[in-house]
What we know:
The structure holds 2 protein chains of 2 kinds. Chain A is of the alpha+beta class.
Amino acid sequence: MMATRFELVLRGENKSHLQALGEAAFDEIGAIERRFSYYRSNSELSLLNQGAFEGPVSVAPDFLDLLKSAKDLFTATGGAFDPTIGPLMKLWAAPRTSLPAPEEIADALSRTGMHHVHIDSENSTISYAIDGLEIDLGGIAKGYAIEMAMEFLIAAGVENILLHGGTSTVATLGTSFEGLPWKIGISDQQNLLATIELVTGSLSVSAQSGKMRIMDDRLYGHIVDPANGHPVSHTAVAAVVCPLASECDALSTAALVLGGEARHSNPFSEATHGVAVWQPSPMQPQTRSQTKLQSGSGPPRLVFQSGLPEFLPQYPEGISRSVLP
Amino acid sequence: MSRQLSADSPGRRDFLKKSSLGTLTGVLALGEEIPPTEKNQPVRGADQDSMACAVIGYGPWGREIASALTRNTDANLVAVCDNFPIMLRRAERSLPGISTHLDYREVLENADISAVFIATPTHLHREIVIDALDAGKHVYCEAPVAATIEEARLIARAARDADGLIFQGGLLYRTEPQYRSVFGFIRSGAVGKMVMARAQYHVKNSWRRASATAERTKALNWRLDNDLSIGLMGEIGIQQIDTVMWILGNRPTAVSGFGSVMFWRDGREIPDVVQSILEFPSGKNLIFDISLVSSFDAMYEVFYGSDSTIVLRDSKAWMFKEVDAPMLGWEVYARRDQFYTETGIALLANATKLDALSQKATDVDPDAETPLYHAIKSFTDNFFFGPYDPVANWQTSFDATVVGIKSNEAILRRTRIELGPDLFNV
């Protein structure tokens, strides 16, 4: 589902009951994927993208609410989270060995911006102000799907849950098998950077590693800054904790884009939110001769963190996950 | 003015709906044969922009039906009915401008609603279908249409006698474009002498449902209740059984069954792994198994012939030729996919699309619509362009239901049951 793997842990007494609930929770996620997929041409999102410039398109109340949340997060993060960034993502993801031309970037930028999306709550319609605009909910839909699945499980009476999608967004409720908080590691896929403990809440991590590519002999990440149209290079990993998985999902991308600036951004300073940002280790020449596709020579360095529960960035630099006990 | 979400062009629909070409086009899109024109019969829906309809039963499949209806510009889903309030709140949240009802009779009393889509538990179909037809509603009823042959017969009779009303059973593959394409291909003799068919449906799923209350959980688990359920062959297998009946052009004459609870030992008595052998005339038997335990190789149907074998899966199809089979001119240009040591020639219903030719065997077509969408599209086509006999009509739906029920009975009794022609009399 959603081109990734979802895993679910339910703790309780009745195994067959929990099994059935788990299957239904995954069905919820599958249904959300079908509705809001950017890639399926018949999804509700695709049909919106196909018609919203021509005129207002009616959407379901829950879809409207999701789009309103996305736009609120766009505003709150100063545009660092932008679900209309598709043209820029496509530009940078296209097979190429050299950087896109400035005109290409400017053209793609001209077709982005969630502020061009008009949401009419009264009539439950959406319209786009500019031609070529497209919403891609990839930065929030996974969290939203987890949120909806959690809502279903909680309504069904489950008291202890861990659900993650692609290991990048996780939501928890209650406690783990030892009766302790759920313990979750944050890594950049190479190094364990920190461990946090969650009882009820969500954690989302955005990382550059694993999706790096070389252009003009330099390494570039896959996350593009909507402000300038270029891949982010100043941040390696960002993690966000907050109550809602959808918000977490979007905010971790925003924190990665904002980097150290995230500490001054409103959504991250709320009492219910926590954030941590790591920058790449000191830069060395990034050339094709490098064998490890990561931004620097060692583990990312913590820039700042605030509000993360039981945050334990205790692992010394240079100790990789593989050598930890 | 806002528009509903849809990929279809309303202009095309409006033109066809009001023109004499409409009837012919609708028939060609749907049926195996062109029925005779019925003169002076009004074109249903000619004065309507869309078919106002309701979904009765808003469980997982009801939600799939609702989703397919919202993608169909010819349909206007205006009401949802379910006897569980939480389902109605879900409907209000995910469907724009919907009215919700706990009692299906409220839907039937609404004169603005032309059609109902019934997706309640199987054992609850009969009363709703018959009441809906009595109320003058066109009916799409999920398959199987009933959990007993007696109730299925009552539904079929009511549908047969409901003059001018559409009754379509939820048999999904007779209207699926790829299956229709292969149907014509097989019927043209491309496989040589057909000798047997095989089908499987494999998932890893408990088939159990759960809810917050014991009462609701019990109601949800009607499929695991021996008194209400017609088991895997009846509830799931009916689709593939019907596909084989349709392609072979015959009803089975006998069925043998096996099955037991192999894995999900949670107190259930409904087998979680079953095998059936359905005997067809001329010895073309169907060997069919369903598993809720091993998901290996998912779902497909295979038709074996003296010249070639055809595999249908995921709305895709391949032909595997025998070495002595005659050369087919078009196959030179066809896409070939490797399956271990076998080479399959892709049979593409959308072969004129170059991007379809370039897809890999396992690619998910982002433009593909679900079989359910096509089934519902055939229903709305009938509403606007008909009347004509649906390919999944009352008789077809009855036949498939009877075979599903008897297949389950054979499994539970571990025996062979003759399916005489009288069994299929309505």
